[in-house]
Amino acid sequence: MAKIIGNSLSNIPWQEKPEGYEMPIWRYKSNPIIKRNAIPSSNSVFNSAVVPFKDGYAGAFRCDSKSVSMDIFAGFSKDGVNWEIEHEPIVFQSDNTELLKKEFRYDPRICFIEDRYYITWCNGYHGPTIGIGYTFDFKEFFQMENAFLPFNRNGVLFPRMINGKYAMLSRPSDNGHTPFGDIYYSQSNDLEYWGHHRHVMATIPGNDSAWQSTKIGPGPIPIETDEGWLLIYHGVITTCNGFVYRMGCALLDINEPWKVKYRSKDYIMTPTTDYECIGDVPNVIFPCAALTDADTGRIVLYYGCADTVTGLAFTTVDTLLDYLKANSL
Ligand code: BMA
Known about the structure:
five-stranded mixed sheet, Tachylectin-2, Chain A, mainly beta, 3 helices, 22 strands
């Protein structure tokens, strides 16, 4: 039995694995939990992040508007399934007005570190880069310096310092629908200046694990276990009809997370349902958040479906690690 290092969260959403189901991740039966028109202005609500907050949950939601501009909105839930999303986007405060200029904001992650909730997102500042801000209460939000120069996407913080430094995974990219991309690890003393970059994982060329041959990117905040950091990530293949986004996982060394102990050869989840295969961008599943319960080892994933709606899926730390070890590259 592997152990999740973290809090007990006995009230996370949960459904048992269906009888005879073979894959390591199973879907919530009433998916999608958030529909495309969840707020009056939205065209789509997907690729969103949630965390435990007070006696329920809070989140940062990617809502693309009916003019199809991308922004992030705060939301609240008692049960993690039924969400009330604010009708106006998050407004960040900063003393520096240059920072607040934005072309777009999308694909948020939320990470509680020490005393506050840090939000990272893909921030349009002369192209995509990693924005960072924080909140204590999901009412007031403060923006910090962008972590990197453009171009970068998928900034994902670790939930504690490692070797005395804050740590972040990211995926350097280009200014468009990037046709390449590996995962890197960066370190910081203050969450402002990032360096000591390490390469974590590359795409897999050729035919061996082709679902992750074009680009990969970190998903939810890495889950600390007694065997290492459990990272769930997305992997992309280029087909004659465009990109297909699937999910994989890896186990990273606990003290040197740029060292990969296991990495899934087979994907752990692939678009199969109507709401994953049909939408604004078909055949996309894109995980951005996980809730975990240390007592039971349960993991609840929040993932964007076809760039249109938001789904919920379940697994456990043992289910995922057993599958990973049996199917590692
Ligand atoms: C990526 C990001 C994601 C999106 C995905 C599939 O480049 O823009 O937000 O889900 O493409 O379209």
